[in-house]
Amino acid sequence: MNTPNYIEDFTAWKQAFKHKYSVTVRFSETDAFGHLNNTNAFVYFEIGRIEFFKECGIAATWFSEKEETIPVAADLQCDFRQQVFFDENLHVCVKVAHVGTSSVDLHYMIVNGKSEVCMTGRGRIVQVSRFSGKSVPWSDRARGYLNQ
Amino acid sequence: MNTPNYIEDFTAWKQAFKHKYSVTVRFSETDAFGHLNNTNAFVYFEIGRIEFFKECGIAATWFSEKEETIPVAADLQCDFRQQVFFDENLHVCVKVAHVGTSSVDLHYMIVNGKSEVCMTGRGRIVQVSRFSGKSVPWSDRARGYLNQ
Amino acid sequence: MNTPNYIEDFTAWKQAFKHKYSVTVRFSETDAFGHLNNTNAFVYFEIGRIEFFKECGIAATWFSEKEETIPVAADLQCDFRQQVFFDENLHVCVKVAHVGTSSVDLHYMIVNGKSEVCMTGRGRIVQVSRFSGKSVPWSDRARGYLNQ
Amino acid sequence: MNTPNYIEDFTAWKQAFKHKYSVTVRFSETDAFGHLNNTNAFVYFEIGRIEFFKECGIAATWFSEKEETIPVAADLQCDFRQQVFFDENLHVCVKVAHVGTSSVDLHYMIVNGKSEVCMTGRGRIVQVSRFSGKSVPWSDRARGYLNQ
């Protein structure tokens, strides 16, 4: 298996994750090939991403209908290294790779109970106005959280 | 297989459906038992229900954020008669069973390519205010559509 | 709100649940009306049901491809009492209402953080042969677990 | 918006798609931000990919439990260019970018009713043994189809 181009040194890359969230593979997430359907990797990335944004205090305003800004995915990618099956307990790990003016590049790693890396991934999230759809720069506070 | 209590005469019940919509079973909707995951029956019911509401001119206002009313499911049930598999072409059939002041009881039937009835179901939809959550009576026009 | 016909006395019915499992509403489970999409109630029921079957020792054989029997949903129903929103922590409660020769009638209750009952439901699960599709009676051991 | 690195010339890239499949955005696929939840882009890619494999005669054996080989996703990525909303009719376009010994690199483009490109993407699919998980080279026939 080749290392994806968003990872320089795999050992160093793995060790830099400090945020991790648990998810258990649901039966409704499997498919007729007997394993987790590939589309659910991105559901798990979204869970990890939102938990991370909640943890660092940024999500609070996004999910209030009164607030102007929401996060949107600009791009997403996933590399599948290991099949995952019903009822496995996984860790969804998230870290900040780069903070832009109104965006953030997040990296993802999903690890199974045997500490095997099952999926890796990345994606850029942009903060936009709910109304105009245009990008909205991070507040100093949000930028501070993301750079921690 | 017993006839569910919302069906009096199965032959007559089947013949009274005039609205039908096509759906093809997606691979991501199957599960590790090799068939359609049971939860997707309700996804198919929702597709049929919304297509029906669009067809009878009621849905137009619900999906505009400026409008006050939205439909909510009060209850839903499904009887599974026949397994369904990847790539099957199904018909989702919908009919009005009863029109209330601000609600409608819909019946559902899902039929496969061999004209076998795979699922039957029913459920009450209530029109409510997006803001107060309280029920909102049908307009005369909506009631007219539903009683057709 | 009327009491569904599978509940005699609501207070007594609520108190008889001994098995409960946690679930947090995912963002991908919400819909454009801003709340949990109705179809996910049945995803939560499936999670509760499988956790219950695991807890009582019955699920072990179902998810091994070498085993002959699998559980299938014969019917399912849900009554929606209270809207549910992103990030709410819910308890999915499960209990046995009736044990048949090769089937079991399960009842469900989903409760939010304010101890409000958001959904109630029921459904019959039948143990069938993976190969013939015919019903397979419970073993004495399985029956023992279900009747506890 | 930058052009993703898997696209050299966007105009030429767009014109080279010959396979397209229709999909209509379901209500259950939207989220509380009022648009299509990002995870469903990959559901649409899977639909397009499987339709393409069916059309070119390769899928037939994969979905029979007697057959040895299944396709698995090695990687997947999506660039989001334009928001998509409930009830939009989309075209999911698929083309072969590169054929390997036992894999194929597919490109995806999702276009809305105004001929706007809403998402682009790519991903490598590998044919593997259902039993050993090891890659299985394409037959001459399958390679012929993919190179057409």
- What's the name of the CATH homologous superfamily of chain A? Hotdog Thioesterase
Strand order of the largest sheet of chain A: 1-3-4-5-2
Question: What's the CATH architecture of chain A?
Answer: Roll
End-to-end CA span of chain A: 32 Å
Q: How many individual helices of chain A?
A: 4
Q: Quote the average pLDDT of chain A.
A: 94
Please compute the radius of gyration of chain A using only Cα atoms.
16 Å
Classification by helices and strands of chain A: alpha+beta
Largest sheet of chain A: 5 strands, antiparallel
Q: What is the CATH C-level name of chain A? A: Alpha Beta
Largest interface comes to:
A-D, 25 and 25 residues
Q: What is the CATH topology classification name of chain A?
A: Thiol Ester Dehydrase, Chain A
Content of β-strand of chain A: 25-35%
Described by the principal axes of the CA atoms, the overall outline of chain A is: globular
Uncertain segments of chain A: none
Order of helices and strands of chain A: HEHHEEEEH
Q: What share of residues of chain A is helical? A: 10-25%
Overall structural domain count of chain A:
1
> What's the total count of β strands of chain A?
5
Oligomer: homotetramer
Provide the descriptors you would attach to this structure in a database record.
homotetramer, 148 residues, alpha+beta, Thiol Ester Dehydrase, Chain A, 5-stranded antiparallel beta sheet, 34% strand, hydrolase (chains A, B, C, D), Acyl-CoA thioester hydrolase (chains A, B, C, D), 4-hydroxybenzoyl-CoA_TE (chains A, B, C, D), HotDog_dom_sf (chains A, B, C, D)
